Amino acid sequence: MTKVEAIVVRDRVETVMDAVEEHTGHVGVTVIEAVGHGRQRGITHEYRGRVFESRFLPKALLTFVVDDAIADAVVTAIADAARSGNESGDGLVWAAPVENVTHNRTGKSLEEEVGLR
Questions:
Q1: Average pLDDT of span 91-112
Q2: pTM
């Protein structure tokens, strides 16, 4: 099993989830609201003549646990769907192997549940 995680702009969460399902058939995801910044280091707002600096921008952390066979396709789908065309700020996607993924309800491994073993 592989855990694929992505930091994306909040506006792209639904687009990314739909792209992963469309390209790979995988539907399980965990979404966590997050804040942060990369190279853009935040943004500056002007409100009623005053300048405000927002160092941390709203983002979302998406976590997918997928079969190794579709991990690369999931990464590609996420990267393509999260891309906005801006110079920076679209986020990151990465994958890492995971072991012993177990359903809390049944106590069975995920591989047993989906018939991979």
A1: 89
A2: 0.82
